[in-house]
Each structure stands twice: as structure tokens, then as C-alpha cells.
Amino acid sequence: MDKIEHHISHTYQPTNTTCSQTALSILLSHYENIIEPLELEERIPQTTNELGEKQGTINQHLATWCLSQGFNVTMYTFDCQIIDQSWSTLEKDELITRLKLRKDGWVVPGMGEQWTIEYTQGYIDFMEAGGELHIQQAVTSDLLYELLQKGPLLPCVSFSTLYGSGRTVLTQEEDTPDDINGRATNHSIVIYGNDENGNFLVADPFKKPGKLVIDKERMLAAISTAQIECDNLLFQLYKK
């Protein structure tokens, strides 16, 4: 296999809830758009809970913001809870119509009504802003290799699956290990290439060292198990 390594500039996330903004900052560096994570946090506000505490930014919001900056954006989703797999053949207008109906539909267990609506609206906003959405049954290594021919990718993954770490209790300041009351968390990274053996080159905003090599089976599992919060998706930018 030919090695692919796209140029990116790595940086670490400045706060415990800015992995998505930091991953986007890394992705944008490939296109020579240098924007610091905290500046992106100001431009792409985080969702807050009923106490006003920051809860992070879903990647649909990041992708929609990129459209406003003049990029073409293609998103691939492997979700089967917010998204219905039977929608994979629908035209864009019909898909948006189904998503608008879905906002008042079944509430995803573990997500709650607020987040079910938030994620659904995120897809609607993305497509209405001009984004291209592809619904896939599952993530495959062939898809990732194909996309990497064009540029780096920003997927959401299960941190626990990617690194074999335990559950944590998330606060604004840190993650505290807790195997009884903790939860598995999802995390945004950048895949910026692959080596000759098909392993993926990863820029992680949190894990040290910041640049890692992840074998393909573990990467596929980590993207797939992000389904726990309906985050099993990725997007890619293109300059117009």
C-alpha cells in the first residue's frame, strides 16, 4: 500500500470540552487556515445544559460552519438512530423532509429529547447550508483509504475503544476515572494519512503524543462504537 501523509499542524485542546474545535483547527491547518481552538469556540458556540455548563460541539455544527467559510464539505454518517438507513437513497429535499419529521419522533435512549433534536437539527442545518451527506451502512477501511486520497478526515470516535481506557466522569476541568459511575466518551480526532501497512496516521487533540499510528481494525471499531452518542460520522473539506 502506498503511504499517504497530508501536512497538518498539531495542537492540543486548551480545555476539557474543546476537542472538536481543536480537531477542526488541526484540519484547517492543512488548508493553511490557522485558527486557534478558542477562537473557533467563539465562532462556533458550544451546546450548554440546563445549568449553562458547556457540553461540547457536535461535528455537524463544525461542518456547517466550514460551509460558511467557503469550503465544500462532504459528510459520511454510519448512524442508525438519528438517521434511518432506509434514507440512503433519498434525494436531498426528501431527506431533509424526513429529518424534520424525525425531530418529533422517537427519542434515542441515552441521548434524551434535547440531544435527539440537537443532532437531528444539526443534519438539517448542514444540508440546508449546502453540505453533501452520504448515509452508509458501516464505516470500512476501503472508504477511509479512498477519502484519504483527497485529504485528511475529521471523524468522531469512542475514546475508550480507540485507546482501551476506562469510563470517566466528565467535568469542565478534567476527566476523573470511575469504572462504576463513569461513562464512555466520544472524541474528535483527525486522520491525516496511512502508512504502508494500512495503519492510520492520527492527530489527537488530547492524547499524548499528539501524533499516533492506529491500526485499521481499532480505528473502524472506534468510529463504529461512537454510535453510543450517535457520533459515528466523519467529514472532509474541499476548497472551492
Short note summarizing the structure:
By secondary structure, this protein is of the alpha+beta class. Helix content is 32%, strand content 20%.
Which key features would you list for this structure?
8 helices; 11 strands; Cathepsin B, Chain A; 240 residues; four-stranded antiparallel beta sheet; alpha+beta
Helix content: 25-40%
Q: What is the rounded distance between the termini?
A: 29 Å
Order of helices and strands: EHHHEHHEHEHEEEEEEHE
Task: Please report the number of helical segments.
Answer: 8
Mean pLDDT: 94
The total strand number stands at: 11
CATH topology: Cathepsin B, Chain A
Q: Which descriptor suits the 3D outline?
A: globular
Percent strand: 15-25%
Biggest beta sheet summary:
5 strands, mixed
Return the domain count. Answer: 1
CATH architecture designation: Alpha-Beta Complex
Radius of gyration: 17 Å
> What's the arrangement of strands in the largest beta sheet?
3-2-11-4-7
* CATH H-level superfamily: Cysteine proteinases
